[in-house]
Amino acid sequence: MAENQTNSKQKRVDSVQEAASEIRAILQKHGLVETLVHRQDMPRHDLVEELVHKQNVAELKNKLDTLHPADIAAILEQLPLDERMIVWNLVKADLDGEILLEVSDAVRETLIADMDPDELLAATEQLETDEIADLAPDLPDEVIADVFRSLSAEEREQLHAALSYPEETVGALMDFEMVTVREDVTLEVVLRYLRRMEELPPNTDQLFVVDRAGTLRGVLPINALIVSAPESLVSEVMITEFVSLRPDDKAEDAAHAVERYDLVSAPVVDEKNRMIGRITVTDIVDYIREDAESEMLGKVGLRDEDLFSSVWKSARNRWLWLAVNLCTAFFASRVIGLFEGSIEKLVALAALMPIVAAIAGNSGNQTVALIVRALAFSEINRANARRLLAKEIAVAVLNGAMWGTVAGLFAWWLYGNVALGVVMFSAMILNLVVGAAVGMLVPLLLQKMDRDPAIGSSVLLTFSTDSMGFLIFLGLATIFLV
To answer: What is the pTM of this model?
Structure first.
C-alpha cells in the first residue's frame, strides 16, 4: 500500500510538471506565431491578428480548465512575471480564491497587485471564514472592510476571532466547519440530519456532542454512528475521553497531538469548554509544510522570495545573511591576525587550521540537528538537559580523540613534526567540545527566548567553531611550537 501511495504521489508530481511544460510550450508558440503575424503585411491585418490571438488564448484556457487549483498555483510559481500574469488572467474567476491560498506569500503579492478591489472581493467570497483569515493579511484594508460587510453576523464574529489569535497558534489554524449534535437524540435522528446536508465538512471523522449552552460533552465517531443500532441514544455511543485543544495552544503542540494520537480532527474549546471550532489533519499538514519552508529559508537568513522577483528586491532580501557573515568573517580574520607572527614562522599552520574548524562545525551541526528535533517533540526538559549535555560533550571528546589522532598522524607524516601532530590532536578535541556545547546550548537558549531554535543556530555554530578553532589551534601552536 505504501508503495502504491508513493507511486500515486509521483504520478501527480509528474503530471503537474508535464502540464507546466505544456503551458510554457503554448506560451512560447503563441508568442512566436503572434510576432510572425504582426510582422506580415496582408489584407485585414488587424482582424487576422485578433483571430490568431483568440485562438491562442482559447487553447491555453482549455488547458487551464482541466487543472486543479493547487496544480495551477504550482505552475504560476514556476513562470516568470509576464507569463504568470497571462496565465493568471485566463484562470476561471471562481478558482481565484483557492489559488491565492495555495501559492507562496511572495507570488500571492504579485497576483493580488494585478487584481482590482471587486475581483479581490469576489475571490474572498468564495472562501470559508478561516480561509479568509489566512488571506486577510495580504488584502488591502478597503477590501477587508467590504468582506466584513458581505458576511453574516455569525461569520463576522468568526472572522474577528480568527484574526485575533497570533500566528502559529491553534486559533489561527482552526476552521469553523463542523457538525454538532445533542446527546439526548437517537442515532437515527442524527443520520436523518446528516442526509439533509449537501455534503459533510472535509476530514469529518467524528461529530461533536454539545449541550444547549454549546459545552462539549463528547465526540461521536462516524464509524460508531454507522455500526450502532439506530435506536441507540448518542449519549450511549459517544466517547467522553478525547483530545481537545485550546485556541491559544501552540500549533506545534497541536501537530504533535495529531501525530501522537493519529487524529483526523480535534475539537477546539474555550476556557469554559464551549465548542468554538476544530482543527484537522489538513490544517496541520499545511502548517508543517509552511513551517518547514520558513525554517529552511531562515537558516540562511532569507524570507519568502519570488523566484522571478526583481534583481533589486532579491538582493535586498539576502542582505541580512551577507551582513552577518561579513561580521563573523571579520572577527575570524582578526583572530588569525593575532597569530600572524606564528603563521609566518610555521607556514603549515595556515594549511591545517581550516581542518580543525571544519570538523568541529560538522560535528556541531549533528548536535544541532539532534537537539532541534528533540525540542520539536518536547523530549528535552530541565530534568534531562544536563545529562544530555554531558553525553554530547563525551561524544565530542571520543570523536575528537579518534579523528584527532588521525589528523595528528597525518600532520606528523606530512610535515615530519611530532609536536605539530600533538597540537593538531589537542585542538581537534577541544574544538569538538566547543561545537557540542554550542550546538546544544544555542537551540535551548533560542527556545527560551521564544525564537525558533532552528533559525540562527547554524550561523552561531559556524561562527563559534571557526573563531574558537583558529584561536585554540593557533594558540596551542604559539605556545608549543613557536
So the answer is: 0.69
